[in-house]
Amino acid sequence: MKKIKLAYCPTRRDVFSREEAMRFSKIIRAKLEEFPVDVVDLEGINAEKLLYDDADIPVIIDRFLNEKVDALFIPHCNFGSENRVAQVAKALGVPVLLWGPRDDFPDENNIRSRDSQCGIFATGKVLRRHNVPFTYLTNSWVDSDNFKTGVEKFIRVANVVKALKNLNILQISTRPEPFCSVICNENELLENFNIHLYPITINDLILKMDEILRTEPKDFKDTVELIKEIGTDGNEEKIRKVASLKVAMKELAKKYNCRAVAIQCWTSLQDMADIMPCFANSLLTDEGIPVVCETDIHGAISAIIMQAVSLEASTPFFADVTVRHPENDNAELLWHCGNFPYSLVKDKKKASVTYSKYQNNTYGIGDWELKSGELTIARFDGDHGKYSLLIGEAKTTDGPKNRGGYVWIEVDDWPKWERKIVEGPYIHHVSGTYGKYAEILVEACKYINVCADSLLPSEEIEARWR
Question: Of the residues 146, 164, 182, which one is the last residue of a structural domain?
């Protein structure tokens, strides 16, 4: 992953101790070296390296804009300057982290030196007046777990927002005819989120595959060997076709600077190439370019969100929400023909690349169960011009074996989930990733013009931030 570029803009007010503000600014700045961020600070703008003077505001804004920062951190090193903070935050238009270190005892004359918490109260109000969304961390000590965890969560929030900025998605053909559920509004995605679709045809894809098969680049040869290592009952011709498909999608995605792919996985590809794309999708997803099925553009956006919230540490998987567990009323099957990333397989000894029983015994699916663990499940979707993000958490559980890629999940109240999906605006497609990130996704929705639709109680989401 590329590090988040974090604008560090500590602030103070003249009434309180300048020396203490400068001291805490240095302490906090040093602490940021422990996090995966590239820091852009106020070095050279003024002697104190603090925001407190109106004359510095244009210079500060220009520096952060020129550096193309992804997020803004404004620690209140004493009371702070709420009006100046709001001007900088408004100009940048990036996620804002509002926090201040807890105050020490008054001095020998019973005078308080900072009052950072009081200043945060004022800044929160002024940011609201400027229509600037912000993330607030509870007033805490610099070396506390609350501060460490809070900053880590904010980095994930900022990474989600960054991932959706100028997002390009490669669209390979139209949706399959029966899949009215995946219809999207390309115009709204562009106008509301600056998400660009790059449509190509199946024929364009086949031509690129033919080129790969002729030239046999290193990526193609390596992919052929990988398929054979995983375990396959396919012949050499079919293995080579699957490998060429993976490399072709990768090269086309790079050509159009796309971070995700949505492919019409059936039936034209089977008619023209006689393979399933599932395992090629799996491999490319594992390489950091999520590929989703049935030309589900909203599904591709969901996958990018899930990739970003994990800081690219875990590969997202794209799944159908399919059937309830035959015995466990709160368990559900997440399944797809065979596109689940190989990196997430539960038992590699039992994994194979094989033939689809759902598509005329066509070769090219990954057949395995996903590993055990805690999961976050999400779906970006919308209709009638309104967009929301369905957010839930689950844990894996035991269940009957299925052909293709599958994992059984257990949640707190499945009927609640089922009703939410049926009543919409969601469909049976979701994206999942390993880890618990519900509160981070809820927070990220503040910044991306999307309604957070959490299946977790709001009290729990708030408590996690506290």
Answer: 164
Pair 310, 434: CB distance under 8 Å: yes
Domain with 375 in it: 168-465
- Please give the structure tokens belonging to residue 231: 């375990």
Residues 151 and 240 reside in one and the same domain: no
| Dist CA 325 CA 331 (whole Å) | 5
Measuring CA to CA, how many Å separate 128 from each of 57, 133, 177, 263?
A: 19, 7, 46, 42
Helix axis angle, 236-255 relative to 202-215, nearest 10°?
110
Query: 151 with 221, same domain?
Result: no
Convert the pLDDT of each residue in 136-187 to its tens digit: 999 999 999 999 999 999 999 999 999 999 899 999 999 999 999 999 999 9
Helix (H, G, I), strand (E, B) or coil at 170: strand
| CATH code, domain with 32 | 3.40.50.10940
- 181 and 46 assigned to the same domain: no
Tokens, residue 142: 């610099």
3-state secondary structure of 10: coil
C-alpha torsion sign, points 413, 418, 421, 424: negative
Which of 48, 35, 28, 46 has the alpha carbon at shortest distance from 3? 35
Strand partners, 169: 197, 260
